[in-house]
Amino acid sequence: LEDSISHGAGLSFGLAEKLHLSIGSDVIAMAPTVDGRVNALDMEVFQTFSVPVEELNDKVVETPLQFAQSLYDTDNVDRMTILLEDNRNVDLVKEKLQHELDKHNVDMEVKSWQEQNPFYTKVKKMFDVIFIFVFIAVFIISVTSVVNTLSMSVIERTREIGTLRALGLKRSGIVRLFAMESAMLGILGGALGFVITTAICSLVKIWQPHWMPPNIVVSIPLEVYLVPSYLGATFLFLVLLSAVVAVLPARKAAGKRIVDALGHV
């Protein structure tokens, strides 16, 4: 659409298909004016577009402001939309705008997009709960696997611990040795996980799978984003977890008498 060409309009795909129209078609737009009379204006189809709500895909027309005001025979507008670069500033901008409007006695109400679309907020909260539940389940499984693997690794090497103790290595040295070994395993495992994750994300970008969400009329690409802060935090957590988990069984095994450790089965 172009502001300089007021009669150019855009039609949703469903509406254009229902009316058998295409780009360049000439049509007549009819609508009641604000006074209740019927008005009609010539209009040319400049573009077609997809509406993100399936129920509206055969009902939406977009025109320049001048054309809409002429069609409804008015100089007014019922709303103005402001798009922010950072959604974290929504509440601050909303408060400042409302303050300025009230100060100049302008009868306008400022609402955020979330207030205008409560359905989005409800769906987002639902998915937040689902993802938190999935995260907790995966977190418990991962931690349990690390704890079980490293604990069994230390317990099965009790004889080695007894041998090291017999050679003069102190209990604190045993604990440090296993903590360092487990930390190295955590580093290797975290690095391997990072490589696998990066490879899968690269494959998704190359493959570019599409899916069609509910209530959407077109398929959209499935996008996966790597968040460096999340990857770094996960890596550090796994390394620390591996080191800490090995300390308790190592202390227990190092605390045994050398004879008992050497005879452990």
Poorly predicted regions are none
Total helix count?
A: 9
Question: Could you state the order of secondary-structure elements as H and E?
Answer: EHEEEHHHHHHEEHH
The amount of helix comes to: 55-70%
Biggest sheet statistics: 4 strands, mixed
Q: Name the strands of the widest sheet in spatial order.
A: 2-3-1-4
What tags apply to this protein structure?
265 residues, alpha+beta, 9 helices, 6 strands
Structure report:
The chain has 265 residues and is an alpha+beta fold. Helix content is 56%, strand content 11%. It has 9 helices and 6 strands; from the N terminus they run βαβββααααααββαα. Strand 2 and strand 3 (38-49) form a beta hairpin. The longest helix is centred in the middle third of the chain and has 38 residues, at 118-155. The protein is elongated, with a radius of gyration of 33 Å.
